[in-house]
Amino acid sequence: MNKLYPDAAAALSGVLFDGMTICAGGFGLCGVPERLIDAIAAAGTTGLTVASNNAGIDGEGLGKLLRTRQIKKMISSYVGENKEFERQYLSGELEVEFCPQGTLAERVRAGGAGIPGFYTKTGVGTLVAEGKEVKLFDGQEYVLERGIRADLSIIKGWKADEAGNLIFRKTARNFNQPMATASSMTVAEVEEIVPVGSLDPDAIHVPGIYVKRLVLGAPYDKRIEFRTVRERV
After folding, report:
1. Is residue 189 a contact partner of residue 216, using CB atoms and an 8 Å limit?
2. For residue 57, what pLDDT is reported?
3. What is the pTM of this model?
4. Cβ neighbours, 10 Å, residue 51
5. Which residues of the chain have pLDDT under 50?
6. Nearest CA to 106 among 53, 61, 30?
């Protein structure tokens, strides 16, 4: 099975549909599947529910899909650097399901492992627990959280072989690793593709069985959320 596609648009061909749920890797602007996000923006797919740690920043990352009004709902844990996100949420244009970061990671991991739900103490007695089942274990309250399973996962890796085995580089692993398992259609973009057998099996972060389509996204520009420099003396 050939997993290699010439570009992001081709890799997403026949996959996108209005109203779908997408799991997107990345943390801030680190490890973000930029080419795939651009292809979704160009396709004009609307009514999206996106599970991601955050929605990028204004005009970058998932912020591009917010700007084009393609996202209907965000399931995320941090949204503080995106003014368009704030504006759409406060005006009622965007539905938001806030989720503690560790809980979000576990919800995605659980979805990938076929676990429909789990109990956690995180969020008990707060707005996070509203409308959810609360159960006592050893005299302590725990809230039920549902696993997340998407129609599509979009992730960014550092290096892959032609079979789709993936390696992430340092913190760019972030949410990309669990997101890769949380759907039956995972599309990955990477900085380098090497022949099968070139990667150390012990270094593989995501086995190729999870990756259905693969695209070479390089070269990339290094995006910086906050540039902090000291004053000249």
Report:
1. yes
2. 87
3. 0.92
4. 26
5. none
6. 53
Residues 20, 48 contacting (CB under 8 angstroms): yes
Listed in order, strand segments (DSSP E) in 109-220 are 117-120, 134-137, 140-146, 152-161, 166-167, 186-194, 211-216
Instruction: Return the amino acid letter for 217.
Output: G
For residue 219, give Cα distances in angstroms to 13, 24, 55, 58, 128: 22, 20, 23, 22, 40
**DSSP secondary structure of 144-158:** EEE---BSEEEEEEE
Distance, in Å, from the CA atom of 35 to the CA atom of 7, rounded to the nearest integer, reads: 8
Tokens found for residue 20: 């779908």
Q: Is 128 helix (H, G, I), strand (E, B) or coil?
A: helix
CA 222, CA 220: separation in Å to the nearest integer?
Answer: 6
Amino acid code (one letter) for 30 = C
Write down the pLDDT at residue 231: 85
CA distances from 139 to 15, 67, 119, 168 (A): 46, 47, 14, 41
Measuring CA to CA, which residue among 170, 169, 173, 177 is closest to residue 207?
177
SS3 assignment, position 168: coil
Helix then strand then coil, in percent of the chain rounded to 5, is: 25, 30, 45
DSSP code for 202:
G
Q: What is the CA radius of gyration of the chain?
A: 18
Residues whose CB falls within 8 Å of the CB of residue 57, separated by 6 or more in sequence, listed in order: 28, 29, 63, 81, 82, 225
Buried b (16+ CB within 10 A) or exposed e, 11-31: bbeebbeeebbbbbbbbbbbb
